[in-house]
Design a protein that fits this description.
697 residues, CBS-domain, Beta-Lactamase, Heat Shock Protein 90, 4 domains
């Protein structure tokens, strides 16, 4: 259905013959007495009748009016014999039959008080009486008109969706028809405005007013048209004005254009909007539809970050697995070398070299573990952590960036433990974001000083990050935590870092504040509740590593020489483990490079203990354990998993849920030997997998 058809239907609806609405044509001559008119009303249901002089209508009388006159004391005596022409209603509504229906409805239904219920008399051009139109009939007609206009608006909306150009012409028709289709205009889910080529809003709906915060733009006044361009962020304002000029310069191009602009709203801060714009040929205006997509963009960003995190998780997990596999023999052989050196005379000076090798390898494993924690933020794990330790780990991760920045770093940490109940990875992410912001702010500063402090007071632990950078302008202080607000270039920041920090801190029942002086520096303070005694009691679980390896005295004692099977695709790892077990436990050790080879050896010989890597080509450690459960269940109690990293969050969660001890590479020889002895002596009880002390993950 086209717009012209809608307009014709609308006009046809309004051009109604008023004679069709007449309810009755009852009347009395003006010479009739009031008493006779009263008796007439008693015998008829009508509430209002016309009073005529010949055929010309003098006025109206009503049942209520006559009752009021005669119902008073001495009413019959005073008024009964008077002629009705002397007792007409005040201000009756007499409408010529040529009056438009909308005018009749407007005049009749806009009356207030008791007059609202007065019926309307219809007369012809000569003033002759044509009949009475009752108020209920008018109300019904108005309801039908409203329903009809609503139906027309709905049909029009469907037609507008098929042709975007018709949408804008329709919006202009709404403005020109003085609100005839106001229901569609005002109830739109989008902000709607008609702009002149300068960007001034000449018409806009209530939704747009709400989206803009019901405040005039910066520099605007109450008496001037609102300039939409003043809301657009300064760095995008030129592009917005060019868009308006292009519409004006190419009026024949009726194609709707889609754009996105950042609006700086006085009450709501920076918000991302999608603009649908079109040129309205009939009025020389630009029609704009606005949709706030800030939350949509944040969600999209989070989904992208989630995908990146999943990719990073996989990559970092694989790298961690490979590096930890290489670190494992370094740690193991350094322990073996230390043992051999200790047995030699005159070579004591070589011992510290082994310690340096071992400590460097373990420090590398610690850095890998921290990278894994940052790459897997999805699983929120609350635990008691010391804020000082988290800062130390962050400083280790950012050591190169801190050195490259050339800033002087100063730390002031409390001497007592700064214990909080939190997700360590999320809190470290907050610290990293704040330190990165501080380093960026000091990039061009003449003096670069970074101060990190941790203090506790009033049941809260507070850590501060202070810099000597360019500072934050006062008008931006209340906006820096809003999504997408940033003073950096698009290549340097997305405007979501501080928003993420605020969400993390709030989710831990904390708070984050900022103090800044332009040209002097900025200080961020994060307050987190101290760990309560109840939280400390709940998270303390001494002897957990022992519980999963608790003994079963019913297991028969091992007789003869022990035989152990090692499955790992890293030859250096299996060689190191074989050498350590052979030297310290006087056992036979078979080594294979895959799960399939391990199954073949288990079918050929009896073993007292199986040690398997988690990640192997073909049949992995999980598959090998499942095979043992099915075919040699007695050996499941003496099964030890070793791993550089399971490779993904889901695989690590599976590892955690298994009833199998786990030793994380790189591990020292004593931890390996202790774990093997426990498994050979006792049968583990069902429970979660166990991280043996000394492992790195």
């Amino acid at each position: 259905m086209t717009l012209n058809t809608h307009e014709q239907e609308s006009k046809a609806t309004e051009q109604v013959d008023l004679a069709e609405l007449v309810d009755h044509r009852e009347s009395v001559p003006a010479t009739e007495t009031v008493e006779n008119v009263y008796n007439w009303f008693k015998q008829h249901p009508q509430e209002y009748i016309g009073v005529l002089e010949g055929r010309r209508l003098l006025g109206l009388v009503s049942r209520g009016q006559i009752g009021f006159l005669l119902g008073a004391r001495f009413g019959f005596a005073i008024y009964g014999r008077q002629v009705i022409g002397l007792n007409l209603m005040d201000h009756p509504l007499l409408m010529p039959e040529s009056t438009p229906l909308l005018t009749v409805l407007d005049q009749a239904l806009s009356r207030s008080g008791d007059r609202f219920y007065d019926d309307v008399a219809l007369v012809n051009a000569a003033g002759e009486y044509l009949g009475i139109i009752t108020v209920p009939t008018l109300v019904q007609r108005q309801s039908r008109l409203i329903l009809e206009k609503t139906r027309l608006a709905e049909e029009q909306q469907r037609a507008l969706q098929e042709n975007n150009g018709q949408l804008f012409r329709s919006l202009n028709e709404l403005r020109q028809s003085q609100g005839r289709y106001e229901i569609l205009f005002e109830n739109s889910a989008l902000g709607v405005a008609l702009l002149n080529p300068r960007g001034e809003m000449e018409t806009f709906n209530r939704r747009l007013e709400v989206l803009l915060g019901r405040e005039a733009p910066p520099g605007g006044t109450g008496g001037e048209p609102w300039d939409l361009s003043l809301y657009v962020a300064a760095k995008e304002r030129g592009a917005f004005l060019r868009l308006l000029r292009e519409h004006e310069e190419h009026p024949a191009d009726n194609t709707a254009r889609t754009s996105e602009f950042m609006l700086q709203l006085p009450a709501r801060g920076p918000r991302m909007f999608k603009f649908y714009s079109n040129w309205v040929q009939a009025t020389g205006q630009i029609s704009i539809l606005l949709n706030d997509i800030t939350e949509q963009r944040v969600l999209e960003h989070r989904l992208i970050q989630k995908e990146k995190s999943a990719l990073l998780d996989s990559l970092v997990g694989g790298i961690a697995h490979e590096i930890n596999n290489k670190l494992a023999p370094i740690v193991g052989y350094s322990d073996l070398l230390q043992f051999e050196i200790s047995r030699l005379q005159g070579n004591e000076q070589l011992g510290p070299y082994c310690d340096i090798i071992r400590n460097a390898a373990m420090e590398s494993a610690k850095i890998i573990r921290q990278l894994l924690q940052l790459s897997r933020p999805l699983a929120r794990e609350l635990a008691i952590v010391d804020l000082r330790d988290l800062f130390d780990e962050v400083q280790a991760l950012l050591r190169f960036r801190l050195r490259a920045s050339g800033c002087r770093e100063k730390t002031e940490f409390m001497t007592e433990p700064a214990l909080i109940y939190a997700d360590a990875a999320q809190i470290k992410q907050v610290m990293i974001n704040l330190i990165f912001n501080a380093l960026d702010a000091m990039e061009n500063a003449p003096e670069k000083r970074l101060q990190l402090s941790i203090q506790a007071a009033d049941g809260a632990v507070r850590f501060r990050v202070a810099d000597t950078g360019h500072g934050i302008q006062p008008e931006n202080l209340n906006q820096i935590f809003n999504p997408f607000f940033t003073t950096k270039t698009a290549e340097r920041g997305s405007g979501l870092g501080l928003s993420v920090c605020l969400n993390v801190v709030k989710s831990h029942s904390g708070d984050i504040t900022v103090e800044s002086t332009p040209g002097v520096g900025t200080e961020f303070t994060v307050s987190l509740p101290q760990a309560t005694q109840e939280q400390l009691d709940q998270t303390s679980d001494p002897g957990r590593a022992e519980s999963a390896a608790a003994g079963n005295p019913d297991l028969p004692p091992i007789k003869g020489r022990l035989r152990i099977l090692i499955a790992d695709d890293e030859e250096f790892v299996t060689g190191m483990v074989q050498e350590a077990l052979r030297r310290n436990m006087a056992c036979l050790v078979d080594q294979v490079e895959s799960g399939q080879r391990a199954v073949m050896r288990l079918q050929q010989a009896d073993f007292d203990l199986v040690i398997s890597d988690v990640r192997m080509p073909g049949l992995d450690g999980f598959g090998l354990y499942e095979w043992i459960l099915k075919h040699q269940p007695h050996l499941a109690a003496r099964f030890l998993l070793i791993t550089g990293d399971a490779g993904s969050l889901s695989m690590n969660e599976k590892l955690e849920s298994m009833v199998v001890p786990v030793l994380h590479k790189p591990f020292d020889i004593e931890t390996l030997l202790a774990g093997c002895r426990k498994l050979l002596e006792r049968k583990p009880q069902p429970g979660r997998s166990v991280r043996l002390v000394g492992g790195s993950h």
